[in-house]
Amino acid sequence: xxxxxxxxxxxxxxxxxxxVTHRTVRHYEDLGLISxxxxxxxxxxxxxxxxxxxxxxxxxxxxxxxxxxxxxxxxYDAPRGQVAQLEYLLSQIGDRRADLEARRRDLDDALAxxxxxxxxxxxxxxxxxxxxxxx
Amino acid sequence: xxxxxxxxxxxxxxxxxxxVTHRTVRHYEDLGLISxxxxxxxxxxxxxxxxxxxxxxxxxxxxxxxxxxxxxxxxYDAPRGQVAQLEYLLSQIGDRRADLEARRRDLDDALAxxxxxxxxxxxxxxxxxxxxxxx
DNA sequence: AGTTTCCTTTACGTTTACGTCAACGTCAAG
DNA sequence: CTTGACGTTGACGTAAACGTAAAGGAAACT
Lengths: 135, 135
Fold this sequence. Notes:
Two copies of one chain form a homodimer.
Chain A (H helix, E strand, L loop, with lengths): L10 H8 L3 H9 L6 E3 L2 E3 L2 H16 L3 H11 L6 H52 L1
Antiparallel strand pairs in A: 1-2
The structure holds a DNA duplex.
């Protein structure tokens, strides 16, 4: 008998799985970022909802607002079909990429500065060490 | 007569230079992120203040809160001298680096997904093109 | 002297992203 | 059948990061 991973989850389960509160999950639903099915009044979440939640949380970690995240998500499941649609989507992708790359440059700059700060620290430590040994 | 860049700036000048409002600059001062000198009641900003403002704005772009930014800035001009201080600072640097690297992973993941989305788009466009030519 | 321009502080308003009750439905266990 | 765990919908509260309006000081044209 095969008993794989569940196919549906409750709000408490996914909140727990993703390390957020159920309030947060419902908030994202209020903003239209997730739309789980309903069994009666209760929400039931499927794999697709988990994927979107993962997207949302990653966007949040990167520093996007929930509104920006919505436009990104919308981008991912925009109706692709006509040439005009596709070309619009491609331009959107270009914008997003430029944004992300700018952020990455900032990030790398910050990391480089951290490195040089660390180097100075180790230098200072070495000097203190030498002094201690000699004196 | 040499007329290089100014040595001091008013709040309006640096706000303009950095593309923020004077209200924002004063807000950062309220939070202790910048502390310009005073000439009477007026604020005068020097190069050091500009450096800090640049740090703050970059941190903001990366997605740090102003509180997190404060701890980072404090890190940069912490009193280095004793071994204990230096070692504490090194541990702080380690934490920050881990944080930044996690963010970069998220960023790279997002960029990779954008790439694959773009590839699918171009693929769809090619197919539509072929259909148009043949049909 | 009067007006403009730039600066100041004080203080309340706003948006985002939730937290936190309150009040109620529902389903399984005891 | 009640208790308890888990779910629901409002609705108000809050912290962060400013915006904005009010009221005024001080230098600098005119």
